[in-house]
Every structure is written in structure tokens, then in C-alpha cells.
Amino acid sequence: MSAIVPDLPPPPLHDNGPGTAPGRVLSTLNEDGSRRWVRPELATGHFHSKRLVVAWLLIAAFVGLPFVRIGGKPAILLDVLHRRFTFFGTTFLPTDTVLLMLLMLTIFLTIFLLTALFGRVWCGWGCPQTVYMEFVFRPIERLFDGNRSKQIAADEKGGFQPKRLVKFAVFAILSFLVANVFLAWFIGVDELRHWMNHSPVEHPAGFAIVATTTVLMFIDFAWFREQMCVVVCPYARIQAALLDKSSLIVAYDVDRGEPRGKLQRVATQDLKIGDCIDCKACVYTCPTNIDIREGLQMECISCTQCIDACDAVMDKIKKPRGLVRYTSQERLAKGAGRILRTRVVLYPLAILIIGSALGYLASHRVPAEVTLLRGIGAPFTASTGGVVTNQVRLKIHNRTNDDRRYRMELRDADGMKWIAPENPLPVQADHAETTTIFVESQPGVIQGEKTIVVHVDDGSGFTADVPFRLLGPGAKL
Q1: Domains in the chain, please, with CATH?
Q2: pTM of the model
């Protein structure tokens, strides 16, 4: 008959001498500090099937969203170079300080709420790093290198391996494609299309950006891999502040699983043993190489691979599923958990208030920004006849989705005349144009300084009266 014999407890950790660490340092490092390559076994099951659907929907969104236009603008464009950030048809400029602050607060509070409720669901289900790594690059790696045991054997063999060379060539092509998808979010598909359709000689900076991004993508997915989650990403380090005892996590049921033991054919009776047979399937399938049985850990990204692996084992040994499952620390300790708690109430309330303020301010923004700047060089010039000339630079940013023509005129400008090379000034949708105005004042009109008003209107309801201080002889500069 089959019985379960408990394992002896693991030996205590000891210092192994100079140059070694006492026990595990990180899941991706050996005790001597060298890289530990993680070769996870794929565990297919209930959660993997759902993640597969979510992953490919997200990849479609990553690729397609930059092509979507709302009101003539990209749905998402994080144009850092020109400092313009477009979110679903609304463009934010550096001058929109309050709006940007409210937007960032709304995003962060939403992350806090999702983490308080569902733990690291973003890391395991939605993060582009996880999505591309686990559902694009690792499947291709398994296609070339085989399953976990074959990959480990290839690692131990070392040397030149043609199949791995071909695999890395495929990785390089994929890295180029992913780099272009990534850049489309930051430079826009129109600029990216221009780079692709013209010689690199015509845009060396653009070519360098694409090449550098491709190399970084290749290094990330071919070499750095899970270390992005374990070492670089700050989210793991702040999760302790974002989670509470009621947050949903992937956890091992210690009461049900311990003490562990292995299935062996021995005649044993009245042996009290847990459901965990210490097969280590949960460890072998983990993409960050942790043992979920050690409790909540920084490296856990809640990918649920250990749940599928353990459920498959439970099915084989005819035990109930759920030894490793989605639960909370509170439910494991008390058998019941809370959904409503202080932070789960305060976060949505704050999101509602800040989001409402953001929506109100965004919908009541002026359709154009008018800025007056003093001309470059001398603040004014005076002719021998006493005529004072001020050079004024007028900048108009059209924030609408239509091309506009802005007419300008001076007010409170008796004894003055002005020269405007372009009046009205045409400005394309969501673009800015600058023109120069020369204001000539008759002798004695400006005594040191005088404030005038520049009136601007677009003929469609927008008007602006912008004051400007003209300078003359005797002005305090």
C-alpha cells in the first residue's frame, strides 16, 4: 500500500566560509553570489488558461492602442521629448501642473486599492515584463530547448549549441518588434513610421534610439529576465506597506500541508501527515524560483503557476485542491477574512474626490494658451526722433482638435501702433505657434513703462486679454 513518510526537518543554515552567504540571499543568486539561472517548468491548468487569454488581450492592447485615435489624437502618447502627455484624447502640458498632479495621484491610489484588494495581481497578470516573458519568450525557449530538465542539461553542457544560437536570433527579432511597440507609446506611430520608411542617415538619432531600445529589450528577455522583478522593480519592496492581512495573496496552507512527507510503499498505520508530499512542483514551476511554502515573499509575483502545479498533484494523489491557493493571511489564520476595511473604504473615496476634481478641471480648461514674452536682445530700442519700439513674442498653443486662426489687437494703446507679420495667426490642432509683434510708441507715451493689453480671439468663442508691460527710457530693468 502507499503511505507517506515525513521528511526530516531541513538542516540549519551555516556560514560556508569566506565569500559565501549564510543561506539564500536572493532566489536568483547562489550562496556565493553567482547567477542562478531559473528554468521554470510550465504548469498548465485553470489559472494558466485564464492568464493566457488575459496576456494575449493585453499584447493586442499594447500593440494596438498607439494606433487608436480619439478626437484626432492618439489614445495614449507619452511624448517626453516634447513634454506632451495624451490620455484618451486629453493632452496634458507641463503647464498643467495641477492636472498632472491629480492624474498621478489617481493612478497611484488606484494601484494602492488594487494591491490592498488583490495583492500583486498586476505583477502576475498585467505587467508587460511578465506578459512578454512568460507568454512570448519562454514558450519560444521551450520550443528550442525543451522542458525544464532539458534546459538545465543544456546549461550544464555549456559550449556552442546551434539550437540556442537560433533561439537567440529569434529573440533578437522579437526584441526589435517589442522595442518598436514600446517606442510607439512615447514617440507616436507617425514618427515611428517615418523612421521606418526612411534611411537611418536621415534620422541618426531615431536610429540610435531604436537600436539602443532593441539591445536593452534583448538583454532583458534573454539574460536579465526575472531579475527585473526581483532586483530592479521597486514594487516588491513597497508591497509590505500596500498589503494588509486581508489582501488576496497566493499562499500555502500550512495547517493542511504540514508535516510534509513523500509517497512511498511501506506498511504504516496511524501516521499523521499533511497533504504536502514535498514533490517541489510548486518550486520547479515558479518563474522567480521561490518556495511558496516559506510564506509571503518579496519575490512572489502572484502568477499562480504554483497553484496549477499543486492542484495537478492533488488530483493525482486524490486530495482536495487548494493546498496552494488564492487566499489571505487572515483567512489562513482565522478561517474567515474581511473585504471591507479602512483602506478599502478610504482609497475609493479619495479616488472619487480626486478623479472628480481632475475631470472637472480637464473639462473646463481654456481651448488655447496665450503667452507673451519679451523679445530677444535689448528690452526696447529708441530712435533719434524719440520713437520707442518694443519687440513682443506671442505664443499661442491651440488645445482644440481643430485648426484655428487667432486674431490679435492692442488695447489701451493710445499713441501706439503695432506691426504683426501674421494676423490672424494660423495654428494647427494641438500645436503651438510663435509670432513676433513690434509695438512703436510715440515720444513721451511711455514714461519708464506702460501696461497694454493684447486681445486674442479665434472667431469661435475663445477670447483672451493678456496684459504686457512695455518698457521705455527710464524703466527699471
Answers
A1: 368-471 (2.60.40.10)
A2: 0.82
